[in-house]
Amino acid sequence: MMLRAYNNVTVPSFMYGTAWKKEATAQCVLLAIESGFKAIDTANQLIHYQEALVGEALQALDKKGVKRNTLFLQTKFTSVGGQDHRTPYDPSADLTTQVKQSFASSLAHLITDYLDSYVLHAPFSRRVLGDADWAVWSSMAALYEAGKTKMIGVSNITAGQLTELCQQANHKPMMVQNRCFAALAWDKEIREICRYQDIIYQGFSLLTANREVLVDPQVQEIARRLGATSTQVIFRFAMQIGMLPLTGTTSQQHMREDLEAERFELSREEIDLIEMIAV
Ligand SMILES: NC(=O)c1ccc[n+]([C@@H]2O[C@H](COP(=O)([O-])OP(=O)(O)OC[C@H]3O[C@@H](n4cnc5c(N)ncnc54)[C@H](OP(=O)(O)O)[C@@H]3O)[C@@H](O)[C@H]2O)c1
What we know:
By secondary structure, the chain is an alpha/beta fold. It has helices spanning 25-35, 51-63, 95-110, 131-145, 159-168, 188-197, 211-214, 217-226, 230-240, 252-260, 268-275, and strands at residues 2-4, 10-12, 15-17, 39-41, 72-77, 117-120, 152-155, 175-179, 200-204, 243-247. The chain is globular and about 55 Å long. The protein binds NADP nicotinamide-adenine-dinucleotide phosphate (NAP). Residues 17-19, 41, 121, 155-156, 177, 204-208, 231, 246-251, 254, 257-258 line the site of NADP nicotinamide-adenine-dinucleotide phosphate.
C-alpha cells in the first residue's frame, strides 16, 4: 500500500526504523528490505543511528538488483543539541551551512544523489518556533525547491509549533514524525492537524512507548479474534486511523509479522476502543 503526500509524492505505508541498531544496522536493513519493507528511516546523528551502515546495506542491495529508485529513503538534520562531538557539520558555522553540510554528508553516507524525505529531527525551541527553527526550515525548503529531496518534514513537534509552521512557512511539512503515546489518544491532537492540513503522520515507538497496551486483555482479545499478535493489532490500528507506522524490530520474524498487519481488518468498534484505551 502507498500513501500520497500533498505534493503527490507516494510513500510506502510502513517504514523500517534504524535507530539503536549500532553495528547490526546494515544487516537489519538488508533483512528489512528482503522481508518486504520499501521505506527506511535514519538520521545523521551518530548517538542513535549509523547512517553510513544504512548506505552499506543499500550498496549490497544494489548489487543484488534492488535499485535505489525502488526504495524510499528518509533521514534527518539533527541540531548540535541532539549530537555529541561527532557532528556531521561544522558546529560553529551558521545554520544554513550546517544543514547543507549535514545533507551532503547524508547523501554520501546513503550513496545517493537525492532523498525521498528530509526531516528536522526536533525544533530547537520547546513551545513556539524560534529564529533557529525558521533558519533550518528555510534551508530544508531550499533543498526541496532544488529537487534534492522529494519531501520535507518535521519530528518531535508540538501542536502549537505545527500550526505555526503550517501557517507561516512557504512550504508546510509533507510529513510529521512523532512518538505516539496511547495515553495521548495516540497523539490525536497532532494527527487531527495533520489530517486537516493533508500531512502524512508517521508514528514511532508504537510498541516501546505503549507496553501496557500490548498486554491489555481487550487488545489480546482482538488479537485472538484475528488470529494475530497484539503487535500486529497495534500496527494495523495505526494504519486504519491513517497513520504511517515505523517498526524498530531487529528480528526477521517480527519484520514479516509486522508487514502482515496489512492483511487484518479491525472493526470500527475495535478502533474506537484502542484509540481511547489508555486515555
Ligand atoms: N524522530 C525521532 O526522534 C525518533 C525517536 C525514536 C525512534 N524513531 C524512529 O522510529 C523507529 C522505531 O522506534 P522503536 O525502535 O522505538 O520502535 P518499536 O517498533 O516501538 O520498538 C521496537 C522494539 O520492540 C520489540 N518488538 C517486539 N515484538 C515486535 C514486533 N513484532 N515488531 C516490532 N518490534 C517488536 C523489538 O524487539 P525485537 O528486535 O526483538 O523485535 C524492539 O526492541 C526507530 O528505529 C527510528 O527510526 C525516531
